[in-house]
Amino acid sequence: MKALFKSGPHPGFELVDRPEPEPADAEVKIRVLRTGLCGTDLHIESWDAWAQSEIKTPLIPGHEFFGEVVEVGDAVRDVRVGDRVSGEGHIVCGICRNCRAGRRQMCIRTLSVGVHRDGAFAEYVVLPESNVWVHPQDIDPDLGAIFDPFGNAVHTALSFPMTGEDVLITGAGPIGLMAAAVARHIGARFVVVTDVSQPRLALARGLGVDLAVDVSSSSIAEAQAALGMREGFDIGLEMSGHPSALPQMIANMNHGGRIAVLGLPSQQISLDWAKVVTHMLTIKGIYGREMFETWYAMSAMLKSGLDISSVITDRFAAADWATGFATARSAVGGKVVLDWTDL
Description:
By secondary structure, this protein is of the alpha/beta class. It has 2 domains: 2-146 and 308-339, Quinone Oxidoreductase, Chain A, domain 1, CATH 3.90.180; 153-285, NAD(P)-binding Rossmann-like Domain (Rossmann fold, 3-Layer(aba) Sandwich), CATH 3.40.50.720. The protein is built from 12 helices and 17 strands. Helix 5 packs across helix 6 and helix 5 crosses helix 11 (293-303). It starts with a strand and ends with a strand. The mean pLDDT is 96.
């Protein structure tokens, strides 16, 4: 099979022939149709400090995908050949305290597809049946390929009750954009998104946010005034990882405000902890998806009319993966999808 392959501890990938994986008794073999590009993939491709500390080569990366089941192991119970599927990329141990309590997203021994084991940047990928999510047969393959980051957005947005609340989202990358769409769909009062990229702010406006703020030229406080808000934001979703984002968010929260943090900071951040205490703020870290409550929630929201299709802005043949990676790295558009039927 063709696969994007990192042969050793160095920058770059190669599109080469690799042996097809075969499923074990409780595993499923999937023909990959589409993959999404993630920031994690960019780190692995560039072989930065994080990748050097986390990745063991050789490796086939990729964890956002959509495909068709072509083979199942003897112990597979519910997934069938021909099912159209995506996959939960976190493979958990099943026996640590959190796993046994049903909090599998907090497993202390999590292994990540495309990071700790071969992933989906290939014509075929193998997953445990317990990690496979079966879609309706008529789902758009591009949309199926971004369920992993869509799950991050939903997990973050549903961290706190949002109906009727004023919501601030810092970072209009693909996950921030999807979170904004979710906030609007579930009934937030005002939804404000910040970024410095004009194309991404334009995408946010297209998703129906109340204000898309360029924080290089305007302040969050000015956005509050423009909307007639008398108090600060009730809920903050920090999606950017920028060192100034969380401090600015804290400065604009209402008393009792709640903040969910998904963005990974690139450096140490100094926070106004006095305000966190005196304003009784809640700050919650978010990683991945709740397995599998988030998957049910996002499927239900799509069924009830949520439309995130505009977040996918660029599509390339898998053979043009380098152009796709360059587009994703430019950080001016939305989600990038590779088509593995076009090699």
